[in-house]
Structure formats: structure tokens, C-alpha cells
């Protein structure tokens, strides 16, 4: 046995034994017993707690409490002056703190949590997980337009170009399929598709708006007014630079323009000779003011314009004389209100000011804004603001100076007007922004010539999703003919030239021909001719000059040449002798030198 073997080993090693034998434990049995005990105690504790809640006393409470493990529970001490706090669980409340205050704070916390949850839900609606960049040019993208179906995008900029982008026809190279300059050397101010998507309104820095079809061909050019007429209502069109344009949301042939001539005019697509109606914004003193932006209401019954004196004026479309709604101090006077737009439900008007603010208005109470957001830098007279498709958010872009930060898209909750999200667009200003309701994609035009499209593969539809999945087209190789066809113009005998039977005669003829024989041209004698100048120029002056400069060599002895003037110098000293007359002897003789010394000297 094991014990005997241990004893034998101990006897052999010279000691009595290995000591007491260690105890052995069955761990599985211990764990099982502990688990059962815990289950029984928890069941007893739950039973006692339920009886206490029901108000039923039990004799087994003391027995059950004796089985509980842990320190005794301290009694509940109510706060002073509180009668309704007996049901509260926890330590005593501090003096002056009531249960109602706690409940109010809990309600406030719940409201804040609810608003936070609402903001989180709103943020999830913003399609910004993916983006593509369209390279329009190098200058500011000042106009964006997307057709109602979302198939085509048009961009215009300070470089006078209008580019057409087809999402379904583009591949991953993201190239525009057409580029043109519809208004020559005028900056593009606004581009917009009509409600049917078949024509585009182009507003540039000139006085005449244009309407193009989907392929860029001109359909209409508005007439220019007479700038010498004082009353702008009596002239047929605008007489100064345009600022903005907008299509009617219900009538596909009608559109709206505003200009620096102080008028807002409506036009009919079928009548290019004259405007349809004229609206003249006026200041409080009745003077003319310049409208910088204009728009229709969602139902098309109202026409709104933001003016340079800080006012927003709204007319009934059918009554052009007096304004229906008028806000005198909407923005700071002297700043350009860059955009005004109506919400989709038609009850709220949003305005983006040149005073770095974004405001929302209820036109039924037009004296005071509903909400104001400030600190939104705006350097451009066409910075946009736009409502989200569900009318819950309002988005606008911010401007930055060159190399001084990133332009941003800022999203505000429409009801609370809290900033819920922002997107850093590029190292340039975010000028134009467009949130298409059908595609659920956001288009942004920047001041460095980029047009960015933000989308979400799950929430967005079509648009940019169509072109990013297409691989770039390979360049077409030059087509080569499988068989070379040689076409000779004089193949027929009747058109052939007569062949020379003898080559000697032909060689003699070629020898006499100075061109074929490459005969060098003889030198020109006499006056020049044929564009060539004679050797001496062919004139008397050239002949004299040549003879004068013909021979400049002088083989005479230089010493003798100098001594040739010695007699004249001694008789009439003028240059050197007077300078040495005081300190030298009267007799001056030049030194006699040998021939060898003379050559060494010279």
C-alpha cells in the first residue's frame, strides 16, 4: 500500500515518518452546497420583502433576518419639515432641500436627456459618412443647381464657367460632360433648374438673365431696360447688375430676378420682350434700396426680397405696389443679406445676413426673429442657408480668410436653434450649400473651386452613389485598319503624265534649272537687289567708309612719330613744359636708346 511504502522509505532514510497526512477536499461538492444555500437565502429575503410591502407582518421575520448576511440596515430618518418624504430611500436629505425640488431636478434631467436624445436622432439624419469632390476650377464656386430628379448638377463660378455633371453618366474620374461660358466675362451669381427640370435659369453679373436647356443651349435672354428712364417701372428690363434669381414653385414658365437697379421683376418664359411685373423695395423714407436676394414662398403666393438697408420685404405676388409684410431691422444696414428661404411647411423664413448671423422668422409676427445664431462669418454675397428635407434642421456655411482655417457647414436644430453638428469642408470658405430632398445628399461649393457632395450609402438615394461605383474608362486606342488601301489619284491612263523616254534630256533640263541644280547665287555687284545688300552697300557713303577704314596699319617708328612734334612743342609749350619749368634744367633732351632697348620698351 501507499502507507507501507511511505513507512519503508522513512525507515530506510533514518526517521520515523513524514508527519500528519494532509486533508483532502471535494471542491465540486462544496460549490454545489454553497449554491443551494445562496438560492435558499435569496428566496427567503424576497419573500420577507414582499410581505413587508403588502403590510403583512410575519413571525418569521426575525428568523429570516437572522439568516441575512451583512451589517444591520440603519433606520430611515426623515428630513425636518418633510411629511411626504417617508417613502424616499437613501440617506437623509440636507436641510432646505425638499422632495419636490428633487422631483423637479429629475424632470429637468429627463428633459435634457430627451433633448440630447432628440439631437442624437437628428444628427443621425445627416448624410455625411461619405463624400466626393468635383473639381470645377480654381476660383470660387458661386452657384449650384440640381434638377428635381437629382440626375444632373450644374456649377458656376467666378471664372465665368458653367459646368454640367451627370451622375448617371460619370465614372470614378468625376469629369464634367460639358463646360461653357453663357455670359462671357461675367461672374455667375445663381443657377437653378425649373420645377420640371427641362430648363436652367442663369443669373450673372450682367443685366440680362438667360435660360438654357438641359444641354446648355440658349432658350431665352431677358431684354435690357433703358437706363436713361428714371422710373424703373416704365422700362422693359433691368438696367444694372443682377444679384439673384428664382423659379416659381408651381408655374413652370415664370421666374424672378432682382438687380442693383432697385427692382424685383417677374418674367414669363414665353415673353422675352418685357417683364411680367415689377416690385420696387423702398426704405422707410421712401427711397430706392437695392435687393440682394429674392425668393418665392413654397406655395408661390408671396415674393420676398432681402435688401441692402437690412430690411426684408414681402409682397403678394398679384399686388406689386405695397408690401404685405415688412421687417425694418432684420439685419445690420449696409450689409448684403445673402440668402432668404422658406421652410417646407411655409411657416418659417430663414435669412442669412452679411452681419455674420442666421435668423428665423415667423412672417405672421415679423417684428422680432424667432431665433438668432451669431458668429457665422460671411464674406460672400451669395452664402446659402437651407432646410433639411424633414424641416428639422437648418444648415449654412461659414467663411474664412485664406490659409486661416477651414470653412464649415453648421447644422442648427430648427426649434431650439442649438448647434447640433458641423462639418469641416475644406481649407477655404463654404459658400453655397444645397440639401436635395429626393437624394438626401448635401452639395457644397467652396471658394477654392471645389464642389463637394456628401452622402450616406444607406440614407441617400442615387446621385453620387451611381458614379463612385463605376471604374474609370480606359482610353480608347487609335483604331488601325486591318488592310492598307492605297488610293492613287492618277491611276487611270488618261490622267497619267507622259513618261520621259530618255533621262539625258531631263538631266540637261535640271542642270539649267537653278533650283533643281542648287546653283549658288553670284555675288551682288552694284546696288542691292532682291532683298540682298551689295558688298559695299551700293551707296557713296558706304564706299567712303570702306576706304577710310581700309588701311589702319602704320609701320613708322613710334619714336620718330613723337619727335615729329618736338619742334612745335619747344616753340609753343602748352601742355607739359610749363609744369616742369620751375624744377628742371632749361635744356631738355630725350634719351637716346638703342634699337634693342626700343623694342624692349614697346
Short account of what is shown:
The chain has 602 residues and is an alpha+beta fold. It has helices at residues 2-13, 27-54, 61-67, 99-124, 464-468, 503-512, 540-548, 558-563, 566-571, 577-580, 595-601, and strands spanning 130-135, 141-146, 152-157, 162-166, 178-180, 188-193, 199-204, 210-213, 218-221, 242-247, 254-259, 264-268, 277-279, 291-296, 302-307, 312-316, 325-327, 339-342, 348-352, 357-362, 371-374, 385-387, 393-397, 407-413, 419-426, 430-436, 441-446, 450-455. The protein is built from eleven helices and 28 strands.
How would you summarize the topology of this molecule?
Elements: H1 2-13, H2 27-54, H3 61-67, H4 99-124, E1 130-135, E2 141-146, E3 152-157, E4 162-166, E5 178-180, E6 188-193, E7 199-204, E8 210-213, E9 218-221, E10 242-247, E11 254-259, E12 264-268, E13 277-279, E14 291-296, E15 302-307, E16 312-316, E17 325-327, E18 339-342, E19 348-352, E20 357-362, E21 371-374, E22 385-387, E23 393-397, E24 407-413, E25 419-426, E26 430-436, E27 441-446, E28 450-455, H5 464-468, H6 503-512, H7 540-548, H8 558-563, H9 566-571, H10 577-580, H11 595-601
Antiparallel strand pairs: 1-28, 2-3, 3-4, 4-5, 6-7, 7-8, 8-9, 10-11, 11-12, 12-13, 14-15, 15-16, 16-17, 18-19, 19-20, 20-21, 22-23, 23-24, 24-25, 26-27, 27-28
Biased composition (Basic and acidic residues): 498-521
Protein name: WD repeat-containing protein 70
InterPro entries: WD40/YVTN_repeat-like_dom_sf, WD40_PAC1, WD40_repeat_dom_sf, WD40_rpt, WD_repeat_GAD-1
Amino acid at each position: 500500500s501507499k502507507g507501507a511504502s511511505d513507512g519503508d522509505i522513512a525507515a530506510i532514510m533514518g526517521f520515523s515518518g513524514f508527519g500528519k497526512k494532509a486533508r483532502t477536499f471535494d471542491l465540486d461538492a462544496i460549490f454545489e452546497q454553497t449554491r443551494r444555500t445562496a438560492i435558499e437565502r435569496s428566496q427567503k429575503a424576497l419573500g420577507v420583502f414582499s410581505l413587508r410591502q403588502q403590510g403583512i407582518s410575519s413571525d418569521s421575520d426575525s428568523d429570516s433576518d437572522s439568516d441575512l448576511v451583512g451589517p444591520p440596515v440603519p433606520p430611515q430618518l426623515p428630513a425636518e419639515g418633510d411629511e411626504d418624504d417617508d417613502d424616499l430611500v437613501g440617506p437623509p436629505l440636507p436641510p432646505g432641500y425638499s422632495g419636490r425640488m428633487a422631483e423637479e431636478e429629475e424632470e429637468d434631467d429627463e428633459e435634457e436627456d430627451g433633448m440630447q436624445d432628440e439631437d442624437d436622432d437628428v444628427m443621425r439624419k445627416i448624410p455625411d459618412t461619405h463624400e466626393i469632390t468635383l473639381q470645377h476650377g480654381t476660383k470660387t464656386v458661386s452657384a449650384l443647381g440640381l434638377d428635381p430628379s437629382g440626375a444632373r448638377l450644374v456649377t458656376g463660378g467666378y471664372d465665368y464657367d458653367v459646368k454640367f455633371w451627370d451622375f448617371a453618366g460619370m465614372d470614378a474620374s468625376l469629369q464634367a460632360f460639358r463646360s461653357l461660358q453663357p455670359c462671357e466675362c461675367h461672374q455667375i451669381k445663381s443657377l437653378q433648374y425649373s420645377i420640371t427640370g427641362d430648363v436652367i435659369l442663369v443669373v450673372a453679373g450682367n443685366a440680362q438673365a438667360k435660360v438654357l436647356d438641359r444641354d446648355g443651349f440658349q432658350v431665352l435672354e431677358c431684354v435690357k431696360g433703358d437706363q436713361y428712364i428714371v422710373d424703373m417701372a416704365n422700362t422693359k428690363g433691368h438696367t444694372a447688375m443682377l444679384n439673384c434669381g428664382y423659379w416659381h414653385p408651381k408655374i413652370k414658365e415664370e421666374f424672378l430676378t432682382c438687380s442693383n437697379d432697385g427692382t424685383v421683376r417677374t418674367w414669363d418664359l414665353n415673353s422675352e420682350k418685357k417683364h411680367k411685373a415689377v416690385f420696387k423695395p423702398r426704405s422707410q423714407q421712401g427711397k430706392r434700396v437695392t435687393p440682394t436676394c429674392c425668393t418665392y414662398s413654397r406655395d408661390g403666393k408671396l415674393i420676398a426680397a432681402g435688401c441692402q438697408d437690412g430690411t426684408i420685404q414681402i409682397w403678394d405676388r398679384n399686388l406689386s405696389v405695397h408690401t404685405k409684410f415688412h421687417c425694418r431691422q432684420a439685419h445690420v444696414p449696409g450689409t448684403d443679406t445673402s440668402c432668404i428661404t422658406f421652410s417646407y411647411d411655409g411657416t418659417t423664413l430663414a435669412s442669412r445676413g452679411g452681419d455674420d448671423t442666421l435668423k428665423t422668422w415667423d412672417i405672421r409676427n415679423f417684428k422680432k426673429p424667432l431665433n438668432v445664431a451669431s458668429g457665422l462669418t460671411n464674406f460672400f454675397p451669395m452664402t446659402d442657408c437651407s432646410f433639411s428635407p424633414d424641416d428639422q434642421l437648418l444648415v449654412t456655411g461659414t467663411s474664412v480668410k485664406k490659409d486661416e482655417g477651414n470653412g464649415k457647414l453648421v447644422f442648427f436644430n430648427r426649434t431650439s436653434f442649438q448647434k447640433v453638428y458641423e462639418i469641416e469642408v475644406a481649407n477655404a470658405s463654404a459658400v453655397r450649400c444645397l440639401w436635395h430632398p429626393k437624394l438626401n445628399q448635401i452639395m457644397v461649393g467652396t471658394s477654392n473651386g471645389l464642389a463637394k457632395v456628401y452622402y450616406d450609402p444607406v440614407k441617400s438615394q442615387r446621385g453620387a452613389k451611381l458614379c463612385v461605383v463605376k471604374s474609370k474608362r480606359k482610353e480608347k486606342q487609335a483604331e488601325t485598319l486591318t488592310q492598307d488601301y492605297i488610293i492613287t489619284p492618277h491611276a487611270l491612263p488618261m490622267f497619267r503624265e507622259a513618261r520621259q523616254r530618255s533621262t539625258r534630256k531631263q538631266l540637261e533640263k535640271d542642270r539649267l534649272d537653278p533650283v533643281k541644280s542648287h546653283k549658288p547665287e553670284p555675288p551682288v555687284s552694284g546696288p542691292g537687289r532682291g532683298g540682298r545688300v551689295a558688298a559695299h552697300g551700293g551707296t557713296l557713303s558706304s564706299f567712303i567708309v570702306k576706304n577710310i577704314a581700309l588701311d589702319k596699319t602704320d609701320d613708322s617708328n613710334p619714336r620718330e612719330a613723337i619727335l615729329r612734334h618736338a619742334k612745335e612743342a619747344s616753340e609753343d609749350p602748352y601742355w607739359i613744359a610749363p609744369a616742369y619749368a620751375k624744377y628742371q634744367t632749361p635744356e631738355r633732351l630725350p634719351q637716346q636708346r638703342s634699337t634693342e632697348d626700343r623694342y624692349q620698351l614697346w
